[in-house]
């Protein structure tokens, strides 16, 4: 059987499959579908300093090839995350990434400082790119100087690996990737959702109450793959690919494009057990190709025709 383990940013993961933030709750909710040990790592829903009710409904809307969300970072806040989620994960054998969000660079740093002492947390994913807050202006994801300063603030308060989650809603994602690398990120998650909207022409109503939201699913795969490749060719730190990944072949495509691991999000809504099914499918794909280790594929894109 091929070796699915991957090593990057000081982490050793049993496979390159992570849950995408926000699509698995904090992980606990999904353990009936996928045993924690089946995943390379679990990524939490974004946690913020204070509880957030999120945006008005409707805040999920299906489209032709994926869906739009406008959740607005609903969560119970940091104190509740510590008291309930982290407390229940004390003896876990799962690798946990905690995704943190903030309204200012200082808030991101405060979150990381407070969570730094928890051994249950293996890494931070810093959500620079939620399109559903701050009017969709993406202040941390579109300006390289702000992205760098935000990551540098988190870097100053923790030695845990930091992954910066970037937005595809920028002209040159490679520039943002370079900025977060300069700020001290250990890796990049590429990418969050694309800004989109939908309309029902009969009712004249938008699909989402706030009109715009984050578009994810099958339709964004080519954009996400391009963004991941742009990042991988711009920086030396590892990339976790994310966006429209549904199959073992999709996973392997992102690895060839330069990703060290991938996140699965929207696909889990149609098959919540998918993350547990993919390891066996990856093994058989690698066996077909005569490969002993999945690491052999990373960054092997051939550009000659
Ligand atoms: C949300 O809670 O609005 C989605 C999170 C994100 O896209 O970062």
Please, could you describe this protein's structure?
The structure is a single chain. Strand 1 (6-8) and strand 2 (11-13) form a beta hairpin. The protein has nine helices and 16 strands. Helix 4 (144-155) runs parallel beside helix 5 (173-183), helix 5 (173-183) packs across helix 6 and helix 7 packs across helix 9. With 305 residues, it is an alpha/beta fold. The model has no long low-confidence stretch (mean pLDDT 96). The chain has helices spanning 78-88, 105-115, 139-142, 144-155, 173-183, 221-232, 248-256, 267-270, 274-288; strands at residues 6-8, 11-13, 17-19, 42-43, 60-63, 66-69, 96-100, 121-127, 162-166, 187-190, 194-197, 199-200, 205-206, 212-216, 239-242, 261-264. The protein has an eight-stranded parallel beta sheet with strand order 3-16-15-10-9-8-7-4. The protein has one domain: Aldolase class I (TIM Barrel), CATH 3.20.20. Bound molecules: succinic acid. Succinic acid binds at residues 22, 46, 69, 71-73, 127, 130-132, 192-193, 214.
Unreliable parts:
none
What does the overall shape look like? Answer: globular
Mean pLDDT: 96
**Helix coverage percent:** 25-40%
Number of helices: 9
Blueprint of the fold:
Elements: E1 6-8, E2 11-13, E3 17-19, E4 42-43, E5 60-63, E6 66-69, H1 78-88, E7 96-100, H2 105-115, E8 121-127, H3 139-142, H4 144-155, E9 162-166, H5 173-183, E10 187-190, E11 194-197, E12 199-200, E13 205-206, E14 212-216, H6 221-232, E15 239-242, H7 248-256, E16 261-264, H8 267-270, H9 274-288
Parallel strand pairs: 3-16, 4-7, 7-8, 8-9, 9-10, 10-15, 15-16
Antiparallel strand pairs: 1-2, 5-6, 6-14, 11-14, 12-13
Helix pairs in contact: 2-4, 4-5, 5-6, 7-9
The structure holds succinic acid.
């Amino acid at each position: 059987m091929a070796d699915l383990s991957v090593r990057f940013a000081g982490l050793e993961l049993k496979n390159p499959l992570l849950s995408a933030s926000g699509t698995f709750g904090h992980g606990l909710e999904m353990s009936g579908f996928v045993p924690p040990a089946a995943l390379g790592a679990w990524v939490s829903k974004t946690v913020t300093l204070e509880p957030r009710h999120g945006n008005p409904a409707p805040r999920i809307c299906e489209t032709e090839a994926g869906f739009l969300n406008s959740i607005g970072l609903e969560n119970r806040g940091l104190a509740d995350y510590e008291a309930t989620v982290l407390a229940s994960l004390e003896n876990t054998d799962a690798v946990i990434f905690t995704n943190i969000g903030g309204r200012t660079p200082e808030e991101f740093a405060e979150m990381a400082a407070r969570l730094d002492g928890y051994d249950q947390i293996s890494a931070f994913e810093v959500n620079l790119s939620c399109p559903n807050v701050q009017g969709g202006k993406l202040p941390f994801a579109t300006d390289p100087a702000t992205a760098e300063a935000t990551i540098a603030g988190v870097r100053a308060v923790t030695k845990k690996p930091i992954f910066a989650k970037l937005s595809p809603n920028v002209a040159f994602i490679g520039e943002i990737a370079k900025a977060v690398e300069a700020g001290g990120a250990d890796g990049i998650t590429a990418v969050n959702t694309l800004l989109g909207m939908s309309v029902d022409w009969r009712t004249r109503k938008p699909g989402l109450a706030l009109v715009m939201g984050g578009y994810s699913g099958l339709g964004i795969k080519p954009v996400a793959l391009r963004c991941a490749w742009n990042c991988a060719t711009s920086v030396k730190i590892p990339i976790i690919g994310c966006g429209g990944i549904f199959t073992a072949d999709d996973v392997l495509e992102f690895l060839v494009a330069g990703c060290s691991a991938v996140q699965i999000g929207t696909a889990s809504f149609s098959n919540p057990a998918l993350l547990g099914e993919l390891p066996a499918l990856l093994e058989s794909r690698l066996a077909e190709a005569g490969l002993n280790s999945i690491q052999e594929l990373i960054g092997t894109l051939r550009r000659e025709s």
